[in-house]
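dumping the sequnces here before i forget
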Amino acid sequence: MTFPSFSLKKRIGTKDEVLNKVIIATASLVIVLFFLLFFYVPLTKILKFSFIEQGKITLEYFSDVINSPMNRSALIFSFYQAFLSTIICLVIGIPASYFLAKYEFRGKKVLINLLTIPFVLPPIVVLLGFIITYDANGWVNTIWQTISGSNNPLINIFGSIEGILIAHIFYNISVIIRITIPAWENIDYDLIDVAKTLGTSKWRRFRKIIFPQIFNHIVSASLLVFIYAFNSFAIVLYLGQVRFQTLEVRIYKEMVRSLDFQSGTALAVIQLIINTLIIVFYLVSEKRTRRMAMGKEKSLKKEKINFRKYSTGKKLVVFISIIYMISLFIFTFAPILAIIIESFKPAVESVSSFWGYGQLFSTEYNSYLHSAPLRMLLNTLWFASLNMIITILISLSLLFIIRNRFQRLRKYKTSRVEGMISYLILLPMATSSITLAVGLFLQFRTFSWYNNAVWVFIILAHVLISVPFATRSILASYNRIDVELLNVASTLGASRLRIFAKIELPLILKGLIVGGIFSFAISLGEFGATNFLVKTEYGTLSVGIYNLFGSHTLQLPAAMASILILITILCFIMIQKIGDIDLKV
Amino acid sequence: MKRALIVCLFIFLFLIPLCYSTPINTSAATDYKLTIYTYQSLLNEPVSFDLVGAFSNHSGIPKEEIQLLRLDDSNQILSRAILEKDNPTADVLIGLDNILVFKSKSENILKSYNSPVLSNISSSLIENLDPDHYLLPYDYGVIALWVDTNRLNVSTVPELDSLTLNDILDLDLDKKMVVENPIFSSPGLGFLLWTIAVLGDSSLDISGLLESDWRDWWEEANKDLRIASSWSEAFDIWYSEEADRPIMISYGTSPAYSACLYDDYSAVAYLTHENSSDNSWLQIEGLGLVNGAPNEENAKMFIDWFLSKELQDKIATHNWMYPANKYAEVPECFANSAINPDTVDILNNLISLEILENNLDFWLDEWEEIFAGEIPYSGLVITFSALFVTAFIYLRKKKKQ
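..and the predicted 3d for all of it:
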């Protein structure tokens, strides 16, 4: 370190530091105001219901809630099905990810991407696909009845655990596959070779060398699947019927149907605590995984599938693996395909195959939908676009605060603000979307303009849900920026804004776009909060599809769902083209 | 970089068409002269009756200034009204029935309205729904078992004509039945109260007709019944032959639909006949003026019109219930197909309004507990023990070294 450069930096620093402070202050103000106004204040309003009775703080509602057998069984069931879903996803997903990591074949990347599509699909669309595929007269049961000749359906998805589990596996299997592929790829194979020459058994090599290296990835992936399954709403609401309920369904029932805010909020607080715990576990495990993966080369030797070279035993193994992959592919694609086919299948003979799409422009179903399907499509896109813009702005402000460059320059460590903010955004993520929506509703509905501005609150709810995802995506790309580069630029006299425009922004642009599109996709499919807030003409496609479940034809909802699938896949392709999708929260 | 630009461009192209259809400009300025909350299916079959248009003609209020909001079901109407009670949006609520009336009165969301048209409404309905005129009856009908006789009829099940609730269990008819969830659906709730009134509740000393306990019936039927969350979902199951459930809980007037429109008398409504009476639960639907309604005068005008003969003539053939107005027309086909509530022994009298009001939530909770699926812990035990064994082996070997 030479003195001249130090004094130079200091001199520029003072002027630049003012600007920086202004930026940070504005960003902090925006963030704090946003979260305070739209999340924390509404949340306290809700919490008042569960903690305060006639001006006194009480825990009575909690004991009431825990003593209710239905609530207790919902709590137990949430854990139960989330645990089983996770285990089954692991058992099915890990062999598949090994196959995908180990073997090289044509179209592999496409296959991996295709397998990920269910994860980004809106839950309502998944539900519709499931009904068409696994219903009493759905594809699977019809095929089974034709083959076996029996009259009994093979699977009953209504009011049964199987239905819920299959739907969760369908939804989450890609999380396991995508996260564990790098785990297999990053294993240090030199160690294995050394062990081999030392004469260790295969099992021991797996246990001592391979397993410890992939363990962290498996834990991160499992925790993610667990949290998604634990908070499942639309799927359990419809498939579980009365018989099975998760906490989220229970909260919905208490808050929206029975208007028992005391029990509803008490349940929401319990759910919040559990979610926060799991997310903290996840963040710890994710950090560890990232640290382990750092600096490692992809050392797995990839193999091309070549049957002629293999011994009979190996032939068999590879053959079975291929069959396995094909069945997995069919399992993943049957529901999606089913929706698209259903959208062209006339329910009544008198209508054409394109009736469903034609109905988009009619107002015949207005009494169910409250507005024309086309309007719903436009609403959906409009909400998603606005949500994307606001989310990106907020995530950028968050980024400014978190990566306060001057602190990094001086202390070479992350600021305390970062810790605080990651918790600030953690809480909305751990809060049920129903609670978010009810909070917004109770807080703002007394304003005279509320009824004309419902759409603003739908978008706000979407923003609260997507900000954590977008921020992480942007942060991930920011973390890849070489700090030295910023230091050099600063030493050479570049201003704070210039550094942002010339270095930071270009380098995080990919992450920014990926985060943006991801939040677009989240908003496309959001159901819980929208369904609660929605009023007359502000419906989205997800809500419309749900309202049409009860109508006699599935063609129109299938057409609407096909459009959602198309848009989601488009978003997904864009994300893939630009960068890697972070399935991680 | 180039690619990123293309994507940005793409996104902007997405945004441009949206600007023309923003939700903002269309409704921000609308100031409704009347807002009505009702449920999805009100006057909606076979084709939607243009309620807003008809009232607009009657009152002269422009169609655009009347807002008709169809919520999922009558529970939702009540929920929304309670959530909004400090600052109501709605002026009129249509579709609260003789059970929801308690909660709407205790929550104070309605305002009593002594409509001049009430003199044309049958007084027993007013007495049974709400003598204080917070909720005014507009139609009524009994709950009934709606049977598709093409698939299940007296020749296959001779007991159908003299059916009792216990016969349903004994003859395994519960395997052929679909019932709406009483928490979400009013016919479902009507049927639950039907079973309580007939079988009694031993824990509350309600003897009912048979002096046993409703829980036993539901516990036995639990595994065989199919529960649907709404009437329309139940109808889909009832209608589909693959699901093989030709009995559903519906209204005594449901057969009139196919009878009047298609001259098809194959769907028949049945009651139960314990103690050789014709038993059923009566549902009375009402509408009410919202307490603090922004447009009270228009709301009153609407209520008067809704109870007048002009609109009440439409009830039978569009809402498929009996109109509350004594002078309203009921077509011929009703007489041959529907069950007229006046000929039924109404079970409602067996449960006093006070008991009903105090125990409704308790009964629903109990019902839900009966239906709560049993979680098969075997799956959990197997997975846990497998995990445990693996961990144990793993750790022991580690220790050895």
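Chain A touches chain B through 62 residues (CB under 8 Å).
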